[in-house]
Design brief:
The protein is of the alpha+beta class. Helices cover 20% and strands 35% of the residues. The protein has one domain: 2,3-Dihydroxybiphenyl 1,2-Dioxygenase, domain 1, CATH 3.10.180.10. The two termini are 12 Å apart.
């Protein structure tokens, strides 16, 4: 069911420092920061030949990554995003198998303007999984 790895998201406490690590130390191509108030993050996209890395810095008090950074003050891998062809089919299939979809259980529009959903880490090897309709 899952297809390509769309991105790996890393939560960071200091986006400028993270950009410097990826651009200057690792020599990757890094986008300008994109402010996404509706998602509670500022994000930078690191473009790699086969996928991308998203560096997420919390934005505002209600940021979904605020608590993660409290537990992981140096930052850390936050989630993996896999592509699926049809998010409604994927959601129905997974919930029928007992997997938990976070939030209200429905897909919503994600940071790339495409429908996404998040799956409970306890059901997926301890990793928060995002599915994005390709
Ligand atoms: Co993501």
């Amino acid at each position: 069911m899952i297809g390509k790895l769309n991105h790996v998201a890393i939560a960071v406490p200091d986006l400028d420092a993270a950009v410097s690590i990826y651009r200057d130390t690792l020599g990757a191509e890094v986008s300008e920061p994109v402010i996404l108030p509706e998602h509670g993050v500022t994000v930078v996209f690191v473009e790699l030949p086969n996928t991308r890395i998203e560096l997420l810095q919390p934005l505002g008090e209600q940021s979904p990554i605020g608590r993660f950074l409290e537990k992981n003050p140096a930052g850390g891998m936050h989630h993996l995003c896999y592509e699926v062809e049809d998010i409604e089919t994927a959601a129905a299939h997974l919930t029928a198998l007992g997997a938990r979809v976070l939030g209200n259980g429905r897909p919503r529009i994600g940071a790339h303007g495409k429908p996404v959903l998040f799956l409970h880490p306890k059901d997926f090897c301890g990793t928060l999984v995002e599915l994005e309709q390709a």
